[in-house]
Amino acid sequence: MARPLALTLGEPAGIGPDITIKAWLQRDELKLPAFYLLGDRDFIGRRAHALGVDIELADVGADGAAAAFARALPVVSTGRAATAQPGRPDDRSADAALASIRQAVNDVAAGRAGAVVTNPIAKGVLYRAGFRHPGHTEYLAELAASNGHVPQPVMMLWSPVLAVVPVTIHVSVREAAAQLTTDLIVSTARIVAASLKSRFGLAHPRLAISGLNPHAGEDGTIGTEETTVIAPAIEVLRGDGIDVRGPLPADTMFHDAARKNYDCAICMYHDQALIPIKTLAFDDAVNVTLGLPFIRTSPDHGTAFDIAGTGRANPASLIAALRLAERMAAARAP
Question: Which CATH class, in words, describes the domain spanning 161-280?
Answer without folding.
Answer: alpha beta
